[in-house]
UniProtKB/TrEMBL annotation, chain A:
NCBIfam families: PRK08965.1-2 (NF006518). It comes from Marinobacter salinexigens. It comes from the Bacteria. It is a multi-pass membrane protein. This is Na+/H+ antiporter subunit E. The keyword Transmembrane helix applies. One of its GO terms (molecular function) is monoatomic cation transmembrane transporter activity. It is found in: Cell membrane. One of its GO terms (cellular component) is plasma membrane. Pfam families: MNHE (PF01899). Keywords: Cell membrane, Membrane, Transmembrane, Transmembrane helix. Belongs to the CPA3 antiporters (TC 2.A.63) subunit E family.
TrEMBL record, chain B:
Keywords: Membrane, Transmembrane, Transmembrane helix. The chain crosses the membrane at residues 6-31, 66-89. It comes from Marinobacter salinexigens. InterPro entries: PhaG_MnhG_YufB. The lineage of its organism: Bacteria, Pseudomonadati, Pseudomonadota, Gammaproteobacteria, Pseudomonadales. GO terms for molecular function: sodium:proton antiporter activity. This is Na+/H+ antiporter subunit G.
Length: 162, 110
């Protein structure tokens, strides 16, 4: 019974609570109560989807990583825009990307990053979580895509998680 | 509203509109399903981001309130766009959508 009333993920609950305060029109008694209800209910309902505790070793590296991803989105959007408007045909490639990350949360962050940065979409992950199937819109070779992901995104994530 | 804010808003709106348009053109021009997948997740990401940013500047310069909800919309969009792209790609692989001839490599069997 007590287990049901607890907050299994305090950070998630805190983020949900703050997000709800920002979304509602000004902080009032009602929004505070609703925020607490949501902060309790959502982690309880989604409990089964969180495989294990995320093991952040150095969370202060996160802002720098996000900034880099944001810059890459802007720069690479221009590349894709030029590619779409140019008469040249794109050279799509399916790449099997060998993962060095092991933590499920870290892998999903990497996969989301790959999907968000223009030119690559992560399509699937192998059952043993060792390979990530990536579709690149326009690339010279497999190795080019793998090297770019490895140095730009996986290295910083490795430092963050392991 | 200051002149600078007006210019910034105009620039961001045009940039956002242009990128959304290019994303739509890409949807029509690119050769197969997997390449078309890049349109809505990519160019549109920056397009919506720019339009949201112009909205933030507009409401801030009007002095009503800081546009926190716009920033949250952008954050939610950035979090959900990769998931939908991933699910679309998985579904396409599952039913075995054809790829263009010049695609290197193959999607693996499910």
């Amino acid at each position: 019974m007590l287990d049901r009333l607890s907050f299994p993920q305090p950070w998630l609950s805190l983020i949900l609570f703050i997000t709800w305060q920002l979304l509602s029109e000004g902080i009032s008694g009602g929004s505070l109560v609703m925020g607490i209800v949501l902060a309790w209910a959502i982690p309880q309902i989604t409990h089964g989807f969180w495989p294990e505790r995320p093991a952040f070793i150095s969370p202060w590296r996160m802002p720098a990583y996000l900034l880099r991803v944001l810059m890459d989105i802007v720069v690479a959007s221009f590349h894709v825009a030029r590619l779409i408007l140019s008469p040249r045909k794109p050279r799509p490639v399916f790449v099997c990307y060998p993962l060095e990350l092991e933590h499920p949360l870290a892998i999903s962050i990497l996969a989301s990053t790959i999907s968000l940065t223009p030119g690559t979409v992560s399509a699937d992950i192998s059952d043993d979580q060792k390979l990530l199937l990536v579709h690149a819109l326009d690339a010279e070779s497999d190795q080019e895509v793998i090297d770019a992901i490895r140095t730009r995104y996986e290295k910083p994530l490795l430092e963050m998680f392991q | 509203m200051s002149l600078f804010a007006e210019y910034a808003i105009c620039f961001l709106l045009l940039l956002g509109g242009a990128f959304t348009l290019i994303g739509a053109i890409g949807l029509a021009r690119l050769p197969d399903f997997f390449t078309r997948l890049h349109g809505p997740t990519k160019a549109t990401t920056l397009g919506v981001g720019a339009i949201m940013l112009s909205s933030v500047i507009y409401f801030t310069s009007q002095g009503e309130s800081i546009g926190i909800s716009e920033i949250l919309i952008t954050v939610f969009l950035f979090m959900t766009a990769p998931v939908s792209a991933n699910i679309l790609a998985k579904a396409a692989m599952h039913i075995g959508v054809k790829t263009t001839e010049n695609t290197e490599g193959q999607p693996w069997e499910q």
